């Protein structure tokens, strides 16, 4: 009976969608004729109705409403505008801005006793805890939002809160709880008639059936929800349901149905810039091609999924860290404010006490002797109180200093951790995943010898990439370890360069590249850590080959300037612009997006960052000059041999 009720709820979406479209059109017609107060209300309502459908238009309406509300000093509508902006920033993945706007909206709503708006903002705050993967705390926020919205009769926010509670229980794999709350949301929505919220409810119901392996029920729910999402023009619903339904079709053996819906999902995701949904549609389309025996296309789709997923995981990690730092800073500022208020209260208490003393002294002259004795003891008490306050202040100051030191240490630890995770995520995960995919297919018998031979070149490229990245990672990790010391020695730079040129000789031949020496390059002695400088030389040579145009040359030059040796490598290929060079040479460790080489060679943007760090550790510096489309010159300036300098 419950399943029939769910299906009936899905079919009722189209009627709500028609009513919502009519309401939007009516508000747009009223907008040019309204006075400023009426216009403010209409702008906020349009932004709210459009923020899941036409996000750009909704954002413009919300910005205009915020400015108009501030000029009219209307805090009620300003809170609504800020809540709309906070939610749109959340949808865009700009979580720190979302947090800032939501926090301001909540303060305005509470100060104005606007409980309806406060409940909506609590949903936005709960969504930010969801992005931190703190699902239990997110559930607390959404339940609180539901209680408030229920008390004021805001049905839309009640349904939204119930759906969000269900989504977080689904993440915690508490399927019965998820189904209970989304069922309540679906029943409530039959009267509210919100197409988006009902589609969201049914998507969660489909996810619950899928998690329970009730694939036929999940398929029916997904099909109906997708059909209604398309009819309503809700791109996020359509894209997210495409990969869910495609995966369900594949598990039910309906390969061609899966292909059709996944291709459409990719088209919608690309058009609307929905990266998460796009990556998952590519993932299951790769599985379709694998099942149908087209391993070349399966490999291409899997590669697209890996690239998109890696990019998304790295961005999500950075954004989540920024959001957590923002919330921590907000809490810290609030703590400092509380401390100042407490100090002001203590000072006010002391002033009041002094006034009492003056009053008693001036009016009780007859009891001057007794007052003097009383004042003596009172003064001792005040001094003791002041001493206690001073001691507490010093203790608080010391605690603040300790917190600052620990915060700085934590930041350095986080920076080191983030560097290592970035290296693993960029350089190792993708290639290893490709190798695993090919090897698994070969072992399981899904890949013939001829097909394996076709992919062996790609496999070698991936293995070479992993080896090169792993070597960089190990050297960098050793350099970051506590207790690491540079082992500086005098060594022959010419010999080191020649050894590494031999290693890249196959790549030179593959691109028909010539090595040219512009200046004398024999027996050049330098003073540095040879292992670290070998990593620098190897990365610079590898980049020169990677970005050189075929049939061109790579030129070496060397200059002795006082006590420094400057070794330069010039290639003639893609080149870089000033923005790229500034990012690479900045004082901070920056993970930049690497461009493909002249033969589509992959990279991560980490090599030159490691070169910069290792060169500076050896007392040197790295310089880059480049012209877009004409090539790049990378120069490394390091100390000359101590023997040469003494001569």
Describe the structure.
There is one protein chain. By secondary structure, the protein is of the alpha+beta class. Among the domains are: 14-113, Serine Threonine Protein Phosphatase 5, Tetratricopeptide repeat; 485-591 and 603-639, Histidine kinase-like ATPase, C-terminal domain (Heat Shock Protein 90). It is 76% helix and 7% strand. It contains 24 helices and 7 strands. The chain has helices spanning 2-11, 13-30, 36-50, 55-72, 75-91, 95-111, 115-131, 135-152, 155-171, 175-192, 195-211, 215-232, 235-251, 255-272, 275-291, 295-363, 368-443, 449-480, 493-503, 505-511, 530-547, 578-585, 607-617, 642-646; strands at 488-492, 514-517, 525-529, 553-561, 564-571, 621-627, 631-639. It has a 5-stranded mixed sheet. β4 and β5 form a beta hairpin. α9 packs antiparallel against α10. The model is unreliable at 1-15 and 328-344 (pLDDT under 50). Residues 423-642 form the Histidine kinase domain. Its EC number is 2.7.13.3. Pfam families: HATPase_c, TPR_8.
Features:
two-component regulatory system, histidine kinase, membrane, alpha+beta, single chain, 647 residues, Serine Threonine Protein Phosphatase 5, Tetratricopeptide repeat, phosphoprotein, disordered N terminus, 7 strands, transmembrane, Heat Shock Protein 90
SSE layout and pairing:
Elements: H1 2-11, H2 13-30, H3 36-50, H4 55-72, H5 75-91, H6 95-111, H7 115-131, H8 135-152, H9 155-171, H10 175-192, H11 195-211, H12 215-232, H13 235-251, H14 255-272, H15 275-291, H16 295-363, H17 368-443, H18 449-480, E1 488-492, H19 493-503, H20 505-511, E2 514-517, E3 525-529, H21 530-547, E4 553-561, E5 564-571, H22 578-585, H23 607-617, E6 621-627, E7 631-639, H24 642-646
Parallel strand pairs: 2-4
Antiparallel strand pairs: 1-3, 4-5, 5-7, 6-7
Helix pairs in contact: 1-12, 2-3, 2-11, 3-4, 3-5, 4-5, 5-6, 5-7, 6-7, 7-8, 7-9, 8-9, 9-10, 9-11, 10-11, 11-12, 11-13, 12-13, 13-14, 13-15, 14-15, 15-16, 16-17, 17-18, 19-21, 21-23
């Amino acid at each position: 009976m419950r399943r029939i009720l769910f299906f009936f709820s899905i079919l009722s979406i189209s009627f709500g969608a028609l009513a919502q479209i009519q309401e939007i059109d009516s508000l747009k017609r009223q907008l040019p004729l309204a006075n400023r107060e009426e216009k403010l209300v209409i702008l906020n309502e349009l932004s709210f109705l459009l923020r899941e459908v036409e996000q750009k238009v909704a954002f413009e309406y919300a910005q205009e409403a915020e400015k108009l509300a501030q000029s009219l000093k209307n805090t009620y509508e300003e809170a609504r505008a800020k809540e709309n902006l906070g939610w749109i920033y959340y949808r865009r993945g700009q979580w720190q801005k979302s947090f800032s706007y939501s926090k301001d909206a909540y303060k305005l709503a509470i100060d104005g006793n606007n409980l309806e708006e406060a409940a909506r903002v609590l949903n936005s705050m709960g969504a930010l805890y969801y992005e931190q993967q703190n699902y239990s705390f997110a559930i607390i926020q959404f339940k609180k939002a539901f209680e408030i919205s229920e008390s004021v009769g805001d049905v839309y926010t009640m349904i939204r809160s119930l759906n969000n509670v269900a989504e977080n229980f689904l993440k915690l794999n508490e399927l019965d709880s998820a189904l209970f709350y989304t069922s309540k949301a679906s029943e409530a929505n039959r009267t509210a008639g919100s197409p988006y919220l009902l589609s969201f409810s049914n998507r969660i119901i489909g996810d619950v059936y899928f998690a329970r392996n009730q694939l036929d029920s999940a398929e029916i729910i997904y099909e109906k929800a997708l059909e209604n999402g398309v009819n309503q023009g809700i791109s996020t619903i359509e894209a997210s349901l495409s990969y869910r339904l495609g995966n369900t079709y594949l598990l039910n053996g309906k390969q061609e149905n899966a292909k059709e819906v996944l291709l459409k999902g990719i088209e919608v995701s690309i058009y609307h810039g929905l990266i998460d949904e796009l990556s998952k549609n590519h993932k299951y389309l790769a599985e379709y091609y694998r099942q149908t025996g087209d391993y070349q296309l399966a490999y291409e789709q899997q590669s697209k999924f890996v690239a998109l997923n890696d990019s998304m995981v790295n961005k999500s990690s950075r954004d989540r860290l920024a959001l957590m730092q923002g919330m921590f800073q907000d809490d810290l500022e609030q703590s400092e404010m509380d401390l100042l208020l407490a100090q002001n209260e203590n000072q006010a208490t002391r002033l009041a006490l002094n006034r009492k003393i003056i009053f008693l002294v001036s009016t009780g002259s007859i009891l001057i002797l007794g007052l003097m004795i009383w004042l003596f003891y009172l003064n001792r008490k005040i001094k003791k109180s002041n001493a206690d306050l001073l001691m507490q202040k010093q203790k608080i100051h010391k605690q603040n200093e300790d917190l600052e030191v620990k915060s700085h240490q934590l930041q350095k630890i986080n920076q080191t951790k983030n560097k290592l995770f970035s290296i693993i995520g960029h350089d190792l995960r993708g290639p290893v995943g490709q190798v695993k995919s090919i090897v698994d297919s070969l072992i399981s018998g899904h890949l013939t010898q001829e097909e394996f031979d076709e992919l062996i070149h790609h496999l070698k490229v991936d293995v070479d990439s992993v080896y090169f990245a792993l070597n960089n990672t190990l050297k960098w990790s050793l350099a970051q370890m506590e207790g690491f010391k540079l082992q500086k020695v005098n060594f022959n730079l010419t010999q080191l360069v020649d050894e590494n040129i031999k290693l890249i000789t196959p790549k030179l031949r593959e691109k028909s590249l010539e090595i040219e020496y512009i200046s004398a390059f024999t027996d050049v002695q330098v003073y540095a850590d040879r292992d670290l400088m070998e990593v620098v030389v190897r990365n610079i040579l590898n980049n020169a080959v990677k970005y050189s145009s075929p049939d061109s040359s790579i030129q070496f030059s060397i200059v002795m300037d006082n006590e420094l040796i400057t070794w330069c490598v010039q290639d003639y290929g893609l080149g870089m612009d000033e923005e790229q060079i500034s990012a690479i040479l900045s004082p901070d460790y920056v993970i930049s997006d690497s461009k493909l080489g002249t033969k589509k060679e992959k990279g991560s943007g980490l090599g030159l960052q490691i070169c910069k760090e290792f060169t500076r550790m050896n007392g040197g510096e790295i310089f880059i000059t480049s012209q877009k489309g004409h090539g790049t010159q990378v120069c490394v300036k390091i100390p000359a041999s101590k023997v040469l300098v003494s001569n």
